[in-house]
Amino acid sequence: MPVLCDTHAHLTFDALQHDLPGVLARARNAGVSRIITVGTTAADSTRAVETAAAEPDVWAVVGIHPHEAARATDADVHAVRSLCAAPKVVAVGETGLDYHYDFSDRTSQKRLFAALLSIAKERDLPLVIHCREAVDDAVAMLCQEGFDGRPVVFHCFTGTAAEAERIAAHGWRMSFTGIVTFPNAAELQSLARQYPADRLMLETDAPYLSPVPVRSIRPNEPAHLVHTARFLAELRGESFETLASRSAENARVFFGLT
After folding, report:
1. Which of 28, 35, 77, 107 sits a CA distance of 20 to 30 A from 57?
2. Distance between CA atoms of 204 and 156, rounded to whole angstroms?
3. Does the predicted model carry a pTM greater than 0.90?
């Protein structure tokens, strides 16, 4: 049985929450022994913490998504800061910048990002970054706030090779979703093929991004991580067992999972 860690899922979203016992059982049966559920608002982060407290193989990341930046209040930011004290909170996120959709204005996004960076620094927690078409500003803000060389992961990375090099130059990581299995993901596959084995981490971003060969199945769920792991193992010329266990160990160390 493989040992896998899904480093980014949204177990609190309705698509998974309505059948959470089944979702978790299928994950365990597939060998996904650890799941990190990630908050996108203050309220959602509270639910993530509650889910982690109730489930022995679930941990929480707390934050506010950049899409929510224009609506986020000082009280929301304070709530995230308070949630960081919960025993199974392992990072701040997801936070960052999204210039692809611009659902919130960029000034609000930057203000919120700076506030959550401050919390991560204050609590000495890793960061889970959402970044779309905003690498220049995200990197600049991370460096300005002193995160060079600190534990930072750009989740669901789909950027260019040049952007990947910039991220790696600061000691930060990228994690791979089912997108890497898509037929049109040649550049991402090239990056994944060469990605350092001691830094590789995997995620589903469930309930989104179902991988091949379950691309048509909705919602995506943590059990499907096995397909991404098998694809990457073949892509990299490794055994599935080796890649699964190494990526799970990388996640354990990065997030400080017990």
Report:
1. 77
2. 9
3. yes
